[in-house]
Specification:
This protein is an alpha+beta fold and about 850 residues long. It has 35 helices and nine strands.
């Protein structure tokens, strides 16, 4: 009977671990089990005594707090403190920034799907809809991106005026100060629409509404600063920029050499206590036209004029452009996208202390301020830029694939075109779902630092892939720039979104898991803070509580990973419906991720910070779980449209396949060979089971993208596809509709050729022959001719006289500040 009791105990252990039982439940369950075994079994006295002794040795030190402190918590705390990674002040402030949302559920290994589905659906107010349907629509109709990028290297003056008058620079400013006070989702929708039309125009709108003076003033400014600057920023009377990056300080903001020394100086004829600034910044968007500069610098007080500390830390201040000593350099030229961007320099610039954002009390708080704002803002502007391009790309490319012909067949019928077209649709769905979900979280009051990093990184990376596929499908049409090319500038702008507001390499390798492990894990940050607590007794109590919870958490995830892997997730309680299996598999991999994260932190300790490839892959798993969650949420919010199910399945399978592959890479590169084998057994007890989406599924999606289907129009929803002069995507839609109408007639013409009724030729000559022989009617002839005319119009490319390309835009004249800068300076 011994093996039966052993099996019973294993089942009890597994059940308790799987359901995350607390310590008192464990102890009570083991005591009850031993009592039953004592009464019902035929074990000898020695066997029973041994079982009781083992249970006592294990549980009494855990259950009696004084024993636990002495035997477990104190030794582990000492080890933990020795192995803790060093952390700079900027790193600590970045860790503390923002809040934790759904990503915390995924980190815990047992996500509650009802919580996901209960998040509010992102919606627009009537005022926000009116702005999108009114001023945004008008702005998009005004945009001639070729003229802006090739001829002017700037927005035309009337567009600058329109942006100011219609409040495009005031989207996030509250109504109290003359702003729009729009939601994060509306903000994202506006930028998505404009980005699909022109990255130069959209970036001009994005910067005043993103990380910069307005947002910092809204959260941290003094009453006087808010009352003076916010109405002027809202009306466009002031144009802001924010100067953070310098030649030596990009991703490593702590390396900035820009300084502000507290000293006495003269301002407006009076002696005042202030700061002597010296700075050198570059890549500053809107700098050439800015009237007020937000500046980040390191503040020092060597003479203790404002306090006891000499090094106060990174500080932010607002400086008018015309302040003595400030100079704006010539413009940068970011990959043919001509939003205003350039360097700013300052030499012995004296400013009063009350120019610090938030006043003297916020001195040294600049990095925390920036990180808290970035925690939300990173999820809006740049994801919108990539999504705007992807929406236009899939809308136009689907039409182009059916309209464009080779070998007398629409290229969209070739499997070589179907595959990238299906990818584009799947990527765009994932991007839209992720962007919408994160924006909706922000609108609930969250500042989701990790979710924002995931959204920024993956939406921009998927945008890059979608744009590459669009270029491949368009071929020569895509690479010949000109007014007829609707894809070229989108392609050129891709690296901008990849690079700014946290370069993607940095975001993937250091932030998503590195910061996520500290903030999202249910116990790690508490342990870290407890270990740093100067009150040893208080720190030990907090550490002990977290440690016990952490041990139970890890054991639970170990058991859960194995059981869920063995059952392929089928025992998970999940929302019913056609996406149920995706919820179940996500739970399975969430448990496996939580286990892998704990083992990685335990084995590698502080060195995990330097093991960037392992950290990046852990971040990839967390990210793919987040993307999959967003897809399932998006499908639910859109009413579970059956038309979209093939795209949802493609997206779900792709996320699960990527998770599997990242786990595989993690296990192959894990430093401990024994743990590699054990973890692979626990996570994949039945082996790897996920493949990429099938060709059959890809074919179905590609066909959806080449027809008048609800799915195609839903993917493009929010993009500017209005029929207006020069809007090539709208012309493509017209060509698509005419092609669809013409195809049955063209098919009958080809049949007539095969029957010898018509002589071979192009489709126009066949139609004319058929009409002459009364095989088709006048109306049918007109349909074929109109279709061909529309097709020729959209497959055409631009050509230029050599002198037009040699002399080019104003930027060739040393690319100095253009007329916009002169206008703003005069105003």
């Amino acid at each position: 009977m011994g093996w039966m009791w052993a099996l019973a105990f294993f089942l009890l252990f597994s059940m308790l671990a799987y359901n995350r039982a607390k310590l008192n439940i464990w102890a009570l369950s083991v005591v009850v089990f031993l009592l039953l075994m004592t009464r019902l079994s035929h074990f000898s006295g020695i066997g029973l005594i041994s079982a009781w002794v083992i249970a006592a040795v294990i549980f009494l030190p855990l259950y009696i707090s004084s024993w636990r402190f002495k035997l477990i918590s104190k030794p582990v705390l000492r080890f933990y403190q020795k192995s803790m990674p060093t952390m700079s002040r900027t790193e600590r402030e970045a860790l503390a920034a923002g809040t934790v949302g759904w990503e915390g559920e995924l980190f815990c290994g047992n996500p509650h799907w009802n919580k996901l589905l209960s998040y509010p659906k992102p919606t627009l107010s009537e005022e926000e809809k009116a702005f999108l349907d009114g001023p945004v629509e008008v702005l998009c109709s005004m945009i001639d991106d070729w003229d802006i990028t090739h001829n002017r290297a700037d927005l035309p003056p009337e567009m600058w005026d329109f942006l100011k008058q219609q409040g495009f620079f005031s989207l996030i400013i509250t109504k109290e100060y003359g702003g729009k006070q729009f939601s994060a989702y509306a903000h994202s929708q506006i930028l998505t629409k404009v980005y699909g039309r022109s990255a130069s125009v959209a970036t001009t709108i994005a910067v005043p509404n993103s990380l910069g003076p307005a947002e910092l003033l809204m959260h941290y400014g003094t009453t006087k600063q808010k009352e003076y600057y916010l109405p002027r920023l809202a009306s466009g009377l002031e144009i802001p920029c924010f100067a953070l990056t310098g030649p030596e300080a990009g991703s490593d903001a702590g390396a900035m050499s820009d300084t502000g020394i507290v000293c006495w100086g003269e301002h407006e004829g009076e002696k005042k206590l202030g700061l002597r600034l010296n700075f050198n910044k570059r890549y500053i968007t809107l700098a050439p036209v800015a009237t007020v500069i937000g500046l980040a610098f390191k503040m020092y007080d060597p003479d203790h004029l404002v306090g006891n500390k000499k090094d106060l830390g990174i500080t932010c201040a607002l400086i008018p452009r015309d302040t003595k000593g400030v100079s704006i350099g010539r413009r940068h030229f970011p990959v043919n996208i001509v939003f205003q961007n350039g360097p700013i320099h300052g030499e012995d610039v004296f400013i009063p202390l009350d120019w610090i954002i938030g006043g003297v009390k916020m001195a040294g708080q600049g990095w925390r301020m920036l990180m808290e704002c970035l925690a939300a803002g990173r999820a809006i502007s740049l994801p919108a830029s990539s999504l705007g391009g992807a929406k236009i790309a899939i809308y136009a490319t689907g039409a182009y694939a059916r309209v464009r012909r080779q070998f007398n067949v629409s290229i969209g019928k070739f499997e070589g075109i179907e595959e990238p077209l299906a990818r584009m649709a799947g990527y765009t769905y994932i991007m839209d779902a992720t962007r919408s979900f994160t924006a909706a979280m922000i609108d609930t009051g969250e500042k989701p630092a990790i979710a924002s990093a995931i959204t920024k990184y993956h939406v921009t990376e998927l945008g890059r892939l979608a744009c590459n596929d669009a270029m491949d499908i368009h071929g020569g049409k895509g690479i010949c720039l000109g007014p007829k090319n609707y894809i070229g500038r989108l392609y050129e702008s891709v690296p901008i979104a990849i690079t700014v507001e946290g370069a993607n390499i940095l975001t993937r390798n250091l932030i998503i898991f590195g910061q996520g492990a500290m903030r999202c894990h249910p116990y790690v940050f508490t342990e870290f803070e407890a270990a740093r607590n100067k009150d040893q007794a208080e720190g030990l109590i907090a550490f002990d509580k977290a440690l016990i919870g952490h041990i139970s958490f890890t054991i639970s995830n170990l058991i859960r990973s194995f059981i869920l892997g063995l059952t392929n997730g089928r025992i998970v309680m999940a929302p019913e419906g056609k996406t149920k299996r995706y919820f179940q598999q996500a739970t399975r991999f969430s448990a496996a991720f939580a286990l892998m994260a704990d083992i990685s932190m335990l084995v590698l300790g502080g060195s995990l910070k330097r093991k960037e490839s392992i950290s990046a892959r852990l971040g990839d798993v967390l990210s793919e779980l987040y993307l999959l969650s967003a897809v399932l949420k998006h499908y639910h919010d859109q009413g579970k449209n059956g038309d979209d199910l093939p795209i949802v399945r493609w997206a779900g399978l792709t996320c699960l396949y990527n998770i599997q592959q990242k786990f595989d890479e993690l296990l192959k590169n894990f430093p401990s060979r024994i743990l590699r084998v054990l973890l692979r057994f626990l996570i994949f007890p039945l082996g790897k089971r996920f493949n990429k989406p099938s060709d059959k599924l890809g074919h179905k999606i590609a066909q959806l993208m080449q027809d008048q289907t609800p799915s195609r129009y839903r993917l493009a929803e929010g993009a500017y596809v209005t029929h207006s002069e020069g809007n090539m995507p709208a012309l493509l839609e017209d060509a698509l509709l005419k092609t669809i109408a013409s195809e049955p007639i063209e098919k009958s013409l080809k049949t007539a050729v095969s029957e010898g009724l018509l002589e071979s030729g192009n489709i126009v000559s066949l139609a004319k022959q058929a009409f002459a022989k009364q095989i088709i009617t006048q109306d049918q002839l007109d349909i074929v001719l109109q279709s061909d005319e529309a097709r020729q119009k959209v497959i055409a490319v631009d050509d230029f006289a050599s002198e037009d390309l040699e002399h080019g835009p104003k930027r060739n004249k040393n690319y100095a500040n253009t007329e916009s800068a002169e206008v703003w300076q005069k105003e």
